[in-house]
Amino acid sequence: MSAQVEQQLQAYYHFHSAIYDATRWSFLFGRSRILRDLKVVCPAPRRILEVGCGTGRNVSHLCELYPAATVTGIDLSEDMLRVARKKLAPYGQRVSWVRRPYAAGVGGPKPFDLILFSYSLSMFNPGWQEAISAALTDLTDEGCVAVVDFHSSRLAWFRNWMGVNHVRMEGHLLPFLQQNCLPRLERVSAAYGGVWQYFQFVGGRRPTGAASQAAATAGRGKVN
Ligand SMILES: C[S@@+](CC[C@H](N)C(=O)[O-])C[C@H]1O[C@@H](n2cnc3c(N)ncnc32)[C@H](O)[C@@H]1O
Question: I need a labelling partner for 185 at 20 to 30 A (CA). Which of 40, 113, 150, 158 fits?
Fold first, then answer.
């Protein structure tokens, strides 16, 4: 991500952090559902990362859903993180925050069992492929990467309007995830009678070599 794009997003969220929680419920659909699904598909993660955690809405749900887990939220916007830190203060040491763009991954000796991107990847322009690859590097062998995000819209004016809001909505994320992860859950849904579509995806690292055929067979039983 260039310094210019990072500054544009920081300026956007400098304003939007104040109204974010009051407005986003009306169009960021599927966030609660993917969390419920995760409890089935990824039942007991110990270390969780949310990339582009914003005001911490999902971090707080993840803390409730997985009481034994620690959760890290990474975001480029200090304004969004300020709201998140205040909201999640009761969770103390279970929660930690990192302020920077997610590009090369978080790294460190202990990778994550669950990495969530909730309406953040569609704003990684450029850099969404690198972010998915980084997540696969930050993931344990048995871990899950989970994504809920905008998918596409047949309405050009709507796609353009979302572009003004830094969102790319061209059906580009889901095929890349399907190709690079072993899918465990996939769902595409319509919003507002088909004005746009959004998707949910949960996948794991693709095994290499002899294990891959067995894993592909096991993956056929995935939740849809
Ligand atoms: C639409 S908000 C989603 C917030 C939260 N995940 C949710 O579901 O409510 C997108 C967030 O992604 C962050 N973001 C965008 N690009 C990013 C990047 N390259 N690295 C880290 N955070 C990023 C933004 O600052 C913003 O807080």
Answer: 158
